[in-house]
Amino acid sequence: MQPPAPKPARERVLDAAHQLMLTVGLARATTKEIARAAGCSEAALYKHFASKEDLFIRVLTERLPQLTPLLNGLATEHGGGTVEENLTEIARQAALFYEQSFPIAASLYAETQLKRRHDEAMREMGKGPHLPIEGLDAYLRAEQAAGRVRADADTFAAASLLMGACAQRAFAYDVTAERPPAHTFAARLARTLLAGIGV
């Protein structure tokens, strides 16, 4: 039986970057270390990624649970599933995303220059932490128009509350072994939120 073909360099770099960012943090995961862990040269890394910030954003979008496709799909094709089921799945994916991205991104706030470069790269790529809130707001407004969310509900505030709670779960329980499981946390959060905005 033939051994599996080696992964392309781009995939190896993403895997190595993800692992190093999780273990040593973004600030200490240098492109030199990432290239070495991926078994390629630093020049080869830069063939695929314009900068360390670009690589970080690609790790977030290609290696962590994704909210944007889920939110976009729900906003354009609302009505499938109950609002509670949809909010539960959104909250579950968001909780997992923040849980996995928090250890990577936390070091951004320790280095002003790195944070500034990261923010600039995010703006240039049209990415940012505001997008999940806007996506959830769009979904809730679609459900509002369909009569499944109260007409007077503040959908932006509701979206902010749900995403904020998911981010807080990653932060608040990071130092304990008692983080609520994502699926039960998501179900409770969705049920509580819907009690305030549901019809």
From TrEMBL:
PROSITE patterns: HTH_TETR_2. InterPro entries: Homeodomain-like_sf, HTH-type_TetR-like_transc_reg, HTH_TetR, Tet_transcr_reg_TetR-rel_C_sf. Residues 7-67 form the HTH tetR-type domain. Residues 30-49 bind DNA. The keyword Ligase does not apply. Gene3D superfamilies: Homeodomain-like (1.10.10.60), Tetracycline Repressor, domain 2 (1.10.357.10). Signal peptide: none annotated. GO terms for molecular function: DNA-binding transcription factor activity; transcription cis-regulatory region binding. This is TetR family transcriptional regulator.
